[in-house]
Design goal:
single chain, alpha/beta, Arc Repressor Mutant, subunit A, seven-stranded mixed beta sheet, two-stranded antiparallel sheet, 15 helices, about 45% helix, disordered N terminus
């Protein structure tokens, strides 16, 4: 077989590892979600010429140990695209839910541990759905890191991997180069989070709308551009971020924030940008706009009321900033993404 690699530099290669008694919904669902979202992104960003086929943003491959079909639940089988040996490198590796006996699955699929260890050493992002996180822990990728798993496997997980900072109340956890979700249909959240990371906010929203994902749940977690800016090693800056997220409605100056956390304005800006990639003022702006997007979708409050509720006084400035971030005016954003269950 030919070795499969990323074909173009602007595409993201994703490998979904399958094994006997994996959960078929988690495998095929995230495959479909990423394929759709990658196509949407390519159409919006690409410049299509005559007879040119735009490349999907995501190149997804389902891989098994030997390339042969694997048995899943209900006596069904999944035929993979290839063997794991045919994948020279992948930007992302995903492990689906273990639908059978967890410990037996670990015992019978040692190759997955080897694949994950090599992938992590090569700088790939590693993700798991539900109790697929057991494979990540077995590979030693979660030691000293935060993680989550399926609620019914929490005791087993803690007994096997006491070195992991397990947070079972969290739906999705991203720590360093590993991603874990808590199970059920949260593979949607994992997939949309990947779309947010590798495409953009709008593509994630379009994908959620297409698959009719609960927008209230999704906007609170997967779509927040803020979440990917918290995975750094500066505890003081993390406290500053949390403070901003709780006090965004107040009149805030960066000088007062620095004074509160014992930092000069220059030190605050330098450390904040080093940790998050943006200035503290830009982060505060993102917090406010993130809250505004939730209020537009989840409430009947007027644009004027929302403007003041998030700490802005000038409505025209808010509308300009919101449109720059989402490509929609607040009223158009509400019309397109409003959750159907909001009380009228």
């Amino acid at each position: 077989m030919n070795t499969i690699t990323t074909q173009k530099s602007d595409s993201v290669s994703i490998t979904i590892l399958v094994f006997d008694y994996a959960l078929a919904a988690a495998v095929m669902g995230i495959n479909d979600l990423l394929f759709f979202a990658g196509g949407v992104y390519a159409k919006r960003k690409g410049q299509k010429q005559d007879n040119e086929v735009l490349e999907n943003r995501f190149q997804v491959r389902i891989a098994s140990d030997n390339g042969e079909p694997v048995k899943v639940m209900n006596q069904l089988s999944i035929t993979p695209h290839c063997s794991i040996d045919d994948i020279a490198h992948s930007d992302v590796y995903l492990v689906p839910t273990i639908a059978g006996d967890v410990e037996l699955a670990l015992e019978n699929n040692g190759y997955i541990v080897d694949v994950l260890q090599k992938a992590a050493a090569n700088g790939s992002l590693i993700g798991s759905n539900s109790n697929g996180s057991f494979f990540l822990a077995e590979a030693g990728l979660l030691a000293g890191k935060k993680a989550t798993t399926f609620w019914n496997n929490v005791d087993l997980f803690r007994s096997r991997y006491p070195e992991v900072d397990l947070q079972p109340d969290q739906l999705l956890v991203h720590d360093g180069n590993v991603l874990c979700d808590a199970g059920g249909t949260s593979w949607f959240d994992l997939g949309l989070y990947l779309v947010e990371l590798f495409c953009d906010h709008q593509t994630a929203m379009d994908a959620a709308k297409h698959f009719m994902v609960d927008l209230e749940r999704s906007t609170q977690l997967s779509f927040s551009p803020l979440s990917s800016k918290k995975h750094h090693g500066d505890p003081v800056i993390l406290e500053v971020q949390r403070w901003m997220e709780n006090h965004y409605a107040e009149r805030i100056t960066m000088e007062s924030v620095g004074d509160q956390f014992g930092l000069s304005n220059r030190s605050l800006v330098r450390r904040f940008k080093l940790a998050t990639g943006v200035t503290p003022l830009n982060y505060l702006q993102e917090v406010r706009l993130d809250v505004a997007s939730k209020l537009l979708v989840q409430s009947n409050r007027s644009v004027d009321d929302i403007t003041h509720a998030i700490g802005y006084e000038d409505i025209s400035s808010f509308i300009r900033l919101f449109k720059r971030r989402t490509n929609y005016s607040p009223s158009n954003y509400r019309a397109r993404f409003r959750a159907v269950h909001v009380a009228r």
